[in-house]
Amino acid sequence: MFDAGALFHRKCFVQGGGAYNLVHEFLRRHYPSAFCARYLSRTLDIPYEQAQNVIAALRIDGQTIILLGARCAGCRRSQLTVQAVAYDETHSKAPRAD
């Protein structure tokens, strides 16, 4: 796995806190789909508890929204799922000089 130009073993990357970025990027790539912690854990090969912790951290940081009783796009079960917040291009535009 590559991060900032460096090559990491996937398990080392996750144990070093890389799971936050791993989950966030997965959710952004699959927007607007929502996923449960168990599916993220299996798909991204991270411990279930770590997936839950990352979901909580992403929610606190405003990077995701939690959907109660929504259907997971991966396992298709209705449960608590997480979805990336929509990307708003207005925040990325430079101010206009008039």
Write the layout of secondary structure elements.
Elements: E1 2-3, E2 6-7, H1 10-29, H2 37-44, H3 48-60, E3 64-71, E4 78-84
Antiparallel strand pairs: 1-2, 3-4
Explain this structure:
With 98 residues, the protein is an alpha+beta fold. It has one domain (7-90): Orthogonal Bundle (Arc Repressor Mutant, subunit A), CATH 1.10.10. A hairpin with a 6-residue loop joins strand 3 and strand 4 (78-84). The protein is 42% helix and 19% strand. The strands form two sheets. It has a two-stranded antiparallel sheet with strand order 1-2. Helix 1 packs across helix 3.
Compact description:
This protein has 98 residues and is of the alpha+beta class.
Defining key terms:
single chain, 98 residues, alpha+beta, Arc Repressor Mutant, subunit A, two-stranded antiparallel sheet, 3 helices, globular, disordered C terminus
Order of helices and strands: EEHHHEE
Shape: globular
- Mind telling me the CATH class? Mainly Alpha
Our measurement of the CA-to-CA distance between the termini, rounded to an integer number of angstroms, reads: 44 Å
- The order of strands across the largest sheet is 1-2
The beta-strand count equals: 4
